[in-house]
């Protein structure tokens, strides 16, 4: 593919993790096409998610806060493509914008930081998180735990822990690894804490109408990651799309098919509805049906969380 005659403009949030992921994307493009350093420039776009730090995401409008400004920059032609943590990208995207590619997925697990294990935490431990999924899973493992709101970027959350605002916190291994903090925390097996849909995946979006950019980004797409993450996202669609409820989902390739697991959990951790099945790659319809099926098994109180 020909070298662009002007630098491509990569839009990203300005957090250290977002910038690390932007640089990974540039490295992938350069390695694939032999481009020199100036071929891609980074355009930092501040998002409302970055500005508002003192309230839970679910409370102030959800994941759209991470993408809205980058969507606008794409639509107005200020950037050629945008790089996101897929976990932060809304389930339903505007028709004009397409998820064009994903980089190879990193470690999908969460890491517990502040204690060697959930059992090692003191009685009535305080755990800092702003994720409804992590909060519910913590309560399932430790019904005596209290949860306090931890938001902000990875460094901010680690600083809160350092200051003693909680006994422990949970962070995505992928984020810690990409920030050079692989030594922080202990990984919790996915069997114990099923991760969030899309966790550990970096996605690249561009305009649906930009064929040249779609073709270019396809050259660095990791199809295994793409298909698994799309299956997890389809579970979210089945659950009602844009909700802020405790949901976990993970797809893994096994002998050419996707082994897909998902669960919804009541906020007090007392009720878990989970399912697993093997589906063909691209069988989005079955993944969606799995999400709908979870709701059918849920108690009325749990189901109500998804009807809001
Ligand atoms: N919601 C914030 C967010 N979005 C993506 C990641 C980590 C990187 C990833 O999952 O790809 C994080 C931080 C965290 O959950 O610890």
UniProtKB/TrEMBL annotation:
Biological processes annotated in GO: protoporphyrinogen IX biosynthetic process
Key words, A-Z: Porphyrin biosynthesis, Transferase
Pathway: Porphyrin-containing compound metabolism; protoporphyrin-IX biosynthesis; coproporphyrinogen-III from 5-aminolevulinate: step 2/4
Function: Tetrapolymerization of the monopyrrole PBG into the hydroxymethylbilane pre-uroporphyrinogen in several discrete steps.
EC number: 2.5.1.61
Subunit structure and binding partners: Monomer.
Cross-referenced PANTHER family: PORPHOBILINOGEN DEAMINASE (PTHR11557)
More about this protein: The porphobilinogen subunits are added to the dipyrromethane group.
Catalyzed reactions: 4 porphobilinogen + H2O = hydroxymethylbilane + 4 NH4(+)
Protein name as annotated: Porphobilinogen deaminase
Molecular-function GO terms, alphabetical: hydroxymethylbilane synthase activity
Single GO cellular component term: cytoplasm
InterPro entries for the chain: HemC (IPR000860), Porphobilin_deaminase_N (IPR022417), Porphobilinogen_deaminase_C (IPR022418), Porphobilinogen_deaminase_C_sf (IPR036803)
Porphobilinogen deaminase N-terminal domain residues: 8-212
Positions where S-(dipyrrolylmethanemethyl)cysteine occurs in the chain: 243
Domain Porphobilinogen deaminase C-terminal: residue ranges: 227-294
Named cofactor requirement(s): dipyrromethane
Record note on cofactor: Binds 1 dipyrromethane group covalently.
Domain of life: Bacteria
UniProt entry tagged with the keyword Transferase: yes
Family of this protein: Belongs to the HMBS family.
């Amino acid at each position: 593919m020909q070298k662009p005659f002007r630098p491509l403009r990569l839009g990203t949030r300005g957090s250290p993790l977002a910038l690390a992921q932007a640089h990974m994307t540039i490295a992938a493009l350069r390695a694939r096409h032999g481009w020199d350093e100036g071929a891609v420039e980074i355009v930092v776009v501040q998002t409302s998610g970055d500005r508002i730090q003192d309230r839970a995401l679910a409370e102030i409008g959800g994941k759209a806060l991470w993408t809205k400004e980058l969507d606008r920059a794409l639509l107005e032609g200020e950037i050629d493509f945008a790089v996101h943590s897929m976990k932060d990208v809304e389930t339903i995207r505007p028709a004009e914008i397409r998820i064009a590619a994903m980089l190879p997925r990193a470690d999908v697990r969460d890491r517990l930081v502040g204690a060697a294990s959930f059992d090692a935490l003191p009685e009535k431990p305080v755990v800092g998180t702003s994720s409804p999924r992590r909060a519910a899973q913590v309560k399932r493992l430790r019904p005596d735990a209290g949860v306090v709101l931890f938001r902000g970027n990875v460094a901010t959350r680690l600083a809160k822990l350092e200051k003693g605002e909680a006994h422990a916190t949970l962070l995505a291994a992928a984020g810690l690894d990409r920030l050079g903090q692989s030594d922080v925390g202990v990984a919790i097996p996915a069997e114990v804490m099923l991760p969030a849909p899309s966790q550990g995946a970096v996605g690249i979006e561009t305009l649906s109408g930009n064929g040249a950019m779609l073709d270019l980004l396809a050259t660095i797409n990791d199809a295994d990651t793409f298909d698994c993450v799309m299956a997890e996202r389809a579970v979210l669609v089945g659950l009602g799309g844009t909700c802020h409820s405790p949901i976990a989902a993970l797809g893994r390739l096994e002998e050419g098919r996707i082994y897909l697991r998902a669960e919804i959990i009541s906020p007090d951790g007392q009720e878990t509805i989970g399912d697993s099945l093997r589906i063909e790659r691209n069988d989005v319809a079955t993944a969606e049906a799995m999400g709908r099926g979870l709701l059918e098994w849920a108690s009325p109180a749990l189901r109500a969380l998804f009807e809001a």
